[in-house]
Structure formats: structure tokens, C-alpha cells
Write a structure and sequence with these properties.
By secondary structure, this protein is an alpha/beta fold. 36% of the residues lie in helices and 21% in strands. It has 13 helices and 20 strands. The strands form 5 sheets. Strands 1, 2, 3, 4, 5, 18, 19 and 20 form an 8-stranded mixed beta sheet that branches. The protein has a 5-stranded parallel beta sheet with strand order 11-12-13-14-15, with helices on both faces. The radius of gyration is 23 Å and the shape is globular. The chain starts with a helix and ends in a 9-residue tail after the last strand.
Length: 432
């Protein structure tokens, strides 16, 4: 056989093999959630007695059951009487969390392998608690990016992950990845982006878990902060800042910061500027309020740490109330494990409950846990709603959370990407 004929035969064989493989590939699995009531996350009357049809990972049909047929061969999951909401989203999470106290001391010599396994377990528990998307806001040595890839490949179970990599700080700041001057800051920002960071997180004031550094201080120079913002924006990456300081907040707002974490002591001028510029606030209000003390006792927090927590609690609550009244963009985040017990429920659910107590409507609090984070992340074309084209990230409960946010305490069903990870009413429906 001549060379030309050999190549033609080889190409023909490869084409036939590819075509056969394509024909042999299984069609995306179809699942139908039938009989539940779908919350309209952007407002309006719910869809009662609804059918949600999913092919593969995405939703292909949503509507009343009488007009939305279940495709032949679909896996039918009965949802009668339950309320369906988009999966919850938590925008301030540390799966490798280590805090001052007895529990943190036990992790001082934790190896990367042990920490990765601990993070994977925390990811799994978060998903089972109904949190289908997280933003990680400071993890060690690239372990967050490894975990994200493992979840995406099906090697681990957990939420969708967006991550800021390591927390970048000036020397002596609230974090461990230290830099000084424009050259060092530009390098560490680029390193996080190289690893896969979709956000950059900096600490522009002290924190409650430090023995040093005032929470109301502003230790970064204008040049350092401007460098972080410039490098991040040139790479299409957003910047968030751990912050409790009004002085530092105004400094960052002038440079176009995208988001603040905590905001313990923000004044009225800061909140007005945030509203005007569309800057986001991730309150993490649970960490400074009474429900968190159960957690602090469990981890053996020292007195100095509890004193720091108490020092911000009153102002933190007032800032949240003012932010809600003034219409600042708010996305839910906890700074505790999403599943961590807090006030008789999880930290994620209680964070939303506190938003209602501080002045939000129940629907507003549910939006802060779903569609608002998706908008903040720039993922609202994929997650945050139960709608055609969205990933099938869905949770369910016996009552309507848009009318009573406390209904989230009854959450008993979790689906992510069309797979059922939890169904307390029908355990046989869980995908193994």
C-alpha cells in the first residue's frame, strides 16, 4: 500500500472510530422533579405543583406539572408539598479554617495532605447542608485549587468553588502571605492568578483573630493598594478586602475595590459611597453575634480572642442594619463553616435569618443567599435561579423560604448539577 493510500486509510479508520465512540456515548441523563412549588427568586408568584426537567447538569424545562410533560425514561423524583429554591451560596468560606484556641493548636503541624482531606470533608458537609456554591476567601498553599479540580473531576464531593487563593497582606497584617511595596504586591497577586484565583483578597485592616493590628487601622499605602487593583483588573480578576476600618474603606473605594468582607466599623460616608459605586458587602454577621459563642467554646477560644469578638459586635450589627436600609449590595457569607451549628441551625441559614432581623424581607435574605452572590461572581447566567439553561443546583424544604426565611431550617433535599446528594424524604433517590 502506498504512503498516500496508507494515510487515507488511517484517517478513515480514525474518523470511523470517533464516530463510533460518539454514537456509543450515553445521552445525558434526564431527571424530573415533580410536584413541588418553585420559588420565583426574583419575585412574583411561585410556580405551584411544578415540574423541573433536567438533562445532564442543566435545567431544560420549568413549569406547572399539567403543562410540563415528564420525558419518557426520565428518573422521576417526587417533591410533593416541598418548596424548591436555588442552591444556597456562601461567599466567605475557609475549608481549612484554623482559629486561635485549643482546636487550632492541634492543627499547627498539620501536613498538606491532612489539610486537603480535612478541606474535602468540610466541602462535602457544606454541600449536604444545601450550599452548592462557595467563594473561598483564604486557603493555604494552593490546596483550594487542588480541591476545586478534584470536585470538578468527580474525585471529591462538594460545592462549586470560586477562590481568592491566599490572603495577601502587608508585613504584620491580618494574614500570612506578606508583601511590601508595589513590586512584591504585584508578584504575589500574579502568583494567585496563575494558580487559578478568580478573586484577589487583601487585608486592609486588622482582624479579630489577631493579637496585633488595630481593626480600625489602614496599614497599606496608596501605592501598594493601587498596584493590587491594577494588576488584578488587568487580568480580569475582582478584588475583595478584609476590612473593619472606615479610613481603609475610603482609601480602597477611591481605587475601585469590588467588595468588603465583614465591615465591622464602616461609617455612613462609606456606606453611601458603596451604594453609589455598587460595591459589595459580605457581612459575616454570625461571627460577632451571640450564636457564634457556641462555636468559640467548642474550639477553646482564648479570652483575648473573645474580647476582640465582643469589641466589634455592636458596631457590626449597626453597620448591617444601615447597609440594608441604604440598599448596599449584600451577598451572604459566614466566615464559619457553612454547616457549622449556630443558634439551632447552620451558620449559613442563621446568617440569612439575621439579615431579616436586621431589616431585610425574607425574599431579600433568600436573594442574598442565591441570586445576589451569583451576580457578584459574574455567574448569574449559570447559577442562582431555577430556570432553563441554569445548572440544576436546587434545594428543597417543607415551607416557603421567600415568606419565612426560617423555612430553610427544614432543608431536606440537595441537588447539584442534576445529581441528588440528599433527600431525607426519599433516600432511595440519592445518586450513589
Amino acid at each position: 500500500m502506498g504512503a498516500r493510500h496508507w494515510w487515507m486509510a488511517a484517517i478513515g479508520a480514525m474518523t470511523a472510530t470517533a464516530a463510533a465512540a460518539q454514537q456509543a456515548a450515553p445521552a445525558p441523563r434526564t431527571v424530573a422533579l415533580v410536584g413541588g412549588h418553585v420559588v420565583r427568586i426574583e419575585g412574583g408568584a411561585p410556580i405551584r405543583d411544578a415540574t423541573v426537567v433536567i438533562e445532564g447538569e442543566r435545567i431544560v424545562a420549568v413549569g406547572p406539572s399539567e403543562t410540563t410533560p415528564v420525558p419518557a425514561g426520565a428518573k422521576v423524583v417526587p417533591m410533593q408539598g416541598r418548596w424548591l429554591s436555588p442552591g444556597l451560596m456562601n461567599m466567605h468560606v475557609h475549608f481549612g479554617l484554623k482559629l486561635p484556641g485549643a482546636a487550632g493548636a492541634e492543627l499547627v503541624n498539620e501536613t498538606d495532605g491532612a489539610q486537603a482531606l480535612r478541606m474535602a470533608d468540610n466541602a462535602r458537609r457544606s454541600l449536604l447542608a444545601g450550599v452548592t456554591t462557595v467563594r473561598l476567601t483564604a486557603e493555604d498553599r494552593g490546596l483550594d485549587f487542588m480541591l476545586k479540580r478534584a470536585i470538578e473531576r468527580g474525585q471529591a464531593v462538594g460545592p462549586r468553588i470560586e477562590s481568592a487563593g491566599e490572603l495577601i497582606v502587608p508585613t504584620g497584617g491580618h494574614g500570612s502571605l506578606e508583601a511590601d511595596g508595589p513590586a512584591e504586591f504585584s508578584k504575589v497577586v500574579r502568583e494567585q492568578i496563575k494558580r487559578g484565583a478568580s478573586w484577589i483578597k487583601i487585608a486592609i485592616s486588622g482582624g479579630i483573630s489577631d493579637t496585633h493590628g488595630a481593626i480600625g487601622a489602614a496599614p497599606m499605602t496608596d501605592t501598594e493598594l493601587a498596584t493590587v487593583m491594577d494588576v488584578a483588573k488587568r487580568n480580569g480578576v475582582k478584588v475583595t478586602a478584609h476590612n473593619g476600618s472606615s479610613v481603609a474603606a475610603m482609601q480602597a473605594l477611591k481605587l475601585g475595590i469590588d467588595c468588603f468582607e465583614h465591615g465591622y466599623h464602616l461609617n455612613d460616608e462609606v456606606l453611601a459611597t458603596m451604594k453609589k459605586q455598587g460595591t459589595w458587602l459580605v457581612p459575616t454577621i454570625v461571627v460577632s453575634q451571640p450564636g457564634a459563642y457556641e462555636f468559640y467554646r467548642k474550639i477553646g477560644s482564648p479570652d483575648w480572642y473573645l474580647d476582640r469578638v465582643a469589641s466589634v459586635g455592636k458596631d457590626h450589627w449597626a453597620v448591617l442594619q444601615k447597609a440594608i436600609r441604604s440598599g448596599v449590595n449584600i451577598a451572604l457569607g459566614t466566615d464559619q463553616f457553612p454547616f457549622e451549628p449556630n443558634s439551632g441551625t447552620t451558620a449559613t441559614v442563621h446568617e440569612a435569618e439575621l439579615y431579616v432581623k436586621a431589616g431585610m424581607t425574607p425574599l431579600g435574605a433568600l436573594q442574598a443567599a442565591t441570586i445576589q452572590p451569583s451576580r457578584m461572581l459574574g455567574l448569574d447566567d449559570r447559577v442562582g435561579r431555577i430556570a432553563v439553561g441554569q445548572y440544576a443546583d436546587i434545594v428543597a424544604m417543607p415551607a416557603d423560604p421567600a415568606s419565612d426565611i426560617g423555612a430553610l431550617r427544614g432543608l431536606n433535599f440537595v441537588m447539584k448539577g442534576g445529581r441528588v446528594y440528599r433527600d431525607d424524604a426519599n433516600p432511595a433517590a440519592v445518586d450513589r
